[in-house]
Automatic annotation (TrEMBL), chain A:
Organism: Salsuginibacillus halophilus
InterPro entries per record: Na_symporter_ssu
Domain Sodium symporter small subunit: start-end pairs: 10-87
Annotated TM spans: 12-37, 57-76
Protein name: Putative solute:sodium symporter small subunit
Record's keyword terms, sorted: Membrane, Transmembrane, Transmembrane helix
Organism domain of life: Bacteria
Annotated coiled-coil segments of the chain: none
From TrEMBL, chain B:
Pfam family, one: SSF
A biological process from GO: carboxylic acid transport
Organism: Salsuginibacillus halophilus
Organism taxonomic ancestry: Bacteria, Bacillati, Bacillota, Bacilli, Bacillales
GO function terms (MF aspect): transmembrane transporter activity
Protein keywords: Cell membrane, Membrane, Transmembrane, Transmembrane helix, Transport
Gene3D superfamilies: Sodium/glucose cotransporter
Stated name of the protein: Cation/acetate symporter
Protein origin, superkingdom: Bacteria
Intracellular or extracellular location(s): Membrane
């Protein structure tokens, strides 16, 4: 066991929270955001991949964005963990010990 | 029995044999096997199991038809049921995993150190999961019944029997691996028919790239017929209802106990993040395909059925007309079929597509086996959740804390068996329309659990009084709005399916106000919540963070 500086621990939490906030914001923009402006988008006649843009975002665009966000989060978080010297093997060992609650 | 029924039956029986073989092979030997599969499932496979767990008979059979009938308004289901995984993976799953319990009620009970909160959580879990499972069982009954031309009650009993065997034997470990197999079967069955449709229409095997043109053409056909365009927004309901439904489905998805518990089966927070990503990828394959089904099916109906003389309809329509799922009322008396005179049951779209595209006996049978896989995999996950609420939260944590491992395992098995039988009996005569019952389950799950779980892991000042007030208030607000909306009293044009919005708002307000008016939780509980900010290797103790690097223990 060694002590982690408060500033370092806080920085870790802040980075993780920022990732969460940014990803959720993008996620809401492509789903709720587009649905709020569906009527003006429909009237504008913009199309993506052959269909009206608002329909495309509901049927494909939002879902694909969600998937990308989740993978981006997993990859970036792994990098952050590595930067802070977190060893996944140790994590497994520690949480393994807590498995029989 | 005709040739088609025989092939379908054979394929369904083969898949059943596979599921039972998997659960015998992965028999549960101790309680952690039974509830959380010993926490040893790799994220990729857990993601696939979540996919099987999540996609139910309603997703498989019903969703494409819903999108076909509702047009743009049906897309709330597509975005809501996938977007929920964002909330779940970002806000709840890793933290709940680090807290390291067996069930959702157990987290609530231990986080707030309150057996009252535990009991409310357990009862709400049982109500939500039970509502949901009735839909699955009657869904599987409809599939078997329609394919084999037997009463759907027999279908329900066959489904119940199969699930009871494998869930009781294998527990979570068996269910995890059967869900993986069920996912693979259901996704193959779902995608093959539209790949062939896309080939027949465009000579391109990727329906996701080609159906856009069909959507545009559907709009043109609708304009010609004087209907409102297929993709016109908010044609079937208000915009407020669309947004409320979207919100309800998202928070409901993030707080369904049988989904959350799947994140307890992996090793670490990192594994929980990866599970969420893989899960949504596997789920998206089906949800991206549903609008393609909808577009192709509507296109075929518009071209081959609408405007045709009644005696010259294509051959595939005949069996569906005979079962009453496709009906024509020639109200105009002109001998031809128009869109307004057509009644199409939403459930026939996926089942009829292989017949429309002339794909032959094997593919029709495969779709049937896929629909069964979707119903059974969800039912399996739900049964584990109901059983753990009884046997773990109520029996072990509240009534008999000194029960031995063997006794707890036996209690879990008895609970699962009893729950299957009880759900089967109710499913023989379901108390309402299946899709509606399922929509209520989402509203109830979101309204009762989401704010309590979310604030519970992110806000250490939240206490037991706040949690209890929030859960009860959210539950009551959701239920009352469902009843009010059903009897015609609606706020902002929001229907009963969007009731989760009101449940969540009431819940959040109650949690915050009541928590702040009552004493803060103990130092130990607050530290445990603070600890959830960091990965397993970092622990928070007495205001300091420690890194466990294995140097001394």
């Amino acid at each position: 066991m060694r002590k982690v500086e408060k500033a370092v621990a806080d920085k870790y939490f802040k980075i993780r929270t920022t990732i969460v906030a940014v990803c959720l914001l993008i996620g809401f923009a492509v789903s709720f955001g587009v649905a709020i402006f569906a009527e003006p988008i429909h009237q504008s006649g913009v199309t993506i991949m052959g269909m009206p843009a608002h329909y495309y975002m509901g049927a494909q665009g939002s879902v694909v964005t969600f998937v990308i966000l989740l993978f981006a989060n997993a990859i970036i978080s792994d990098r952050v963990d590595k930067k802070f010297g977190i060893d996944e093997k140790q994590n497994e060992q520690i949480s393994g010990g807590a498995s029989d609650h | 029995m005709d040739q088609q029924s025989l092939v379908s039956l054979l394929l369904i029986l083969l898949t059943f044999a596979l599921y039972i073989w998997i659960s015998i092979y992965n028999r549960a030997k101790k309680t952690s096997d039974f509830y959380v599969a010993s926490r040893g499932i790799p994220p990729f496979w857990n993601g696939m199991a979540i996919g099987g767990d999540w996609m139910s008979a309603a997703s498989f059979i019903g969703m494409a038809g819903t999108v076909m009938m509702l047009g743009y308004d049906g897309l709330a289901y597509i975005m809501g049921w996938t977007g929920g995984y964002l909330l779940l993976t970002f806000l709840l799953a890793p933290q709940l995993r680090k807290y390291g319990r067996f069930t959702v009620p157990e987290f609530i009970g231990d986080r707030f150190d309150s057996n009252k909160a535990r009991l409310i959580g357990a009862i709400a879990t049982i109500i939500i999961s039970f509502t949901y499972i009735i839909g699955q069982l009657s869904g599987s009954g409809v599939v078997i019944g329609r394919l084999l031309n037997i009463p759907s009650a027999w279908g329900v009993m066959i489904g119940v029997f199969i699930i009871a065997i494998y869930a009781t034997l294998g527990g979570m470990k068996g269910v995890t691996w059967t869900q993986v197999a069920q996912y693979l079967i259901l996704i193959t069955a779902y995608i093959i028919p539209i790949v062939f449709m896309s080939l027949q229409f465009f000579g391109n095997p990727l329906p996701w790239l080609t159906y856009g043109n069909v959507v545009n053409e559907l709009g043109a056909i609708d304009r010609e017929l004087g209907l409102s365009e297929y993709f016109a927004p908010f044609d079937q309901g208000s915009q407020a209802q669309f947004l409320a439904l979207l919100f309800t489905l998202m928070v409901g998805t993030a707080s369904l106990p049988h989904v959350i518990v799947r994140f307890y089966t992996v090793t670490t927070m990192k594994a929980a993040r990866w599970s969420g990503a893989w899960a949504l990828l596997f789920i998206a394959l089906l949800y991206l395909s549903a609008p393609a089904y909808a577009a192709f099916a509507r296109f075929v109906i518009m071209n081959e059925v609408v405007g045709q003389p009644l005696d010259e309809l294509p051959a595939w329509t005949e069996p569906w007309i005979n079962t009453g799922l496709l009906e024509f009322a020639d109200t105009a008396g002109d001998g031809t079929v128009s869109w307004e005179e057509l009644y199409i049951d939403e459930d026939i779209v996926v089942m009829a597509t292989p017949e429309i595209a002339n794909l032959g006996l094997f593919v029709v049978g495969l779709v049937a086996a896929g629909a069964m896989a979707a119903a059974l995999s969800t039912a399996g996950g739900l049964l584990i959740t109901i059983s753990s609420s009884f046997a773990h939260d109520i029996y072990y944590r509240l009534l008999r804390p000194d029960a031995s491992d063997a006794k707890r395992l036996l209690a879990g098995r008895i609970a699962i068996f009893a729950a299957t039988i009880a759900a089967g009996v109710i499913a023989l005569d379901p108390p309402g329309v299946i899709t509606q019952i399922i929509a209520w389950a989402f509203a109830l799950a979101g309204g009762t659990f989401f704010p309590v779980l979310f604030l519970g892991v992110w806000w250490k000042r939240m206490n037991a009084q706040g949690a209890i007030a929030g859960m009860l208030g959210g539950l009551i607000a959701t239920l009352s709005y469902i009843f009010l909306a059903m009897s015609g009293v609606q706020l902002f044009g929001i229907a009963d399916t969007g009731a989760g919005v009101f449940g969540v708002i009431v819940n959040v307000i109650l949690v915050i106000v009541v928590s702040l008016m009552t004493p803060p939780p103990s130092q130990k509980l607050q530290e445990e919540v603070h600890d959830l900010r960091y990965p397993e290797q970092m622990t928070y103790k007495d205001g300091e963070v420690w890194m466990n690097d294995g140097s001394d223990k």
